[in-house]
Amino acid sequence: YTRFIFMPDAAVDGAHAVTLLLTLIHCYMPVLIEGGYVYMANPPLYRGSKGKGDPTCILNDAHLGAFFEKNGRNGYDVQRFKGLGRSGCTRKANITSTSPSLVCIV
Q1: What is the DSSP letter of 98?
Q2: CB neighbours of residue 48 within 10 Å
Q3: How far apart are CA 59 and CA 45, in angstroms?
Q4: Confidence at residue 44, expressed as pLDDT on a 0 to 100 scale
Q5: With contact defined as beta carbons under 8 Å apart, do 44 and 58 qualify?
Q6: Beta 46-50 vs 76-80: how paired, if at all?
Q7: What share of the chain is helix, strand, coil (3-state, %, to 5)?
């Protein structure tokens, strides 16, 4: 294997879990971080769509505001994700492979 990818949900508890795991790796396996093997997927907090068009992943509240400034609010359906644990495998794969969400921890 060449990557450890942590994929928390966008809520605070997900960030807390990643912090604990990164602390463990930093203390006991720092070579993995130094070698660039540790990644974190930053999942979106919202999904916006208009009609049957392709949905747009919105990372956080700041991006949600920018989304509405650019596109307006009329006709858009915005849903807040309840966490990746409730998402199917296809949605998880789409979230992490189609959005710029994979960040290398260095």
Answers
A1: H
A2: 20
A3: 5
A4: 78
A5: yes
A6: antiparallel
A7: 45, 20, 35
* CA atoms of 93 and 102, how far apart (whole Å): 12
- CA geometry: angle 30, 14, 2, nearest 5 deg: 40
User: What's the rounded Cα separation, in Å, for the pair 82 and 98?
Assistant: 19
- Round to whole Å and give the CA distance between 63 and 36: 28
**Residue 44 to residue 8: CA distance in whole angstroms:** 10
Q: For the segment 75-94, what is each residue's pLDDT rounded down to a tens digit? A: 888 888 766 666 667 766 66
Handedness of CA 27, 17, 55, 96 (dihedral sign): positive
List helix spans (H) across the chain: 12-28, 30-34, 61-71, 89-98
| Dist CA 43 CA 10 (whole Å) | 6
In this structure, the chain runs to a length of: 106
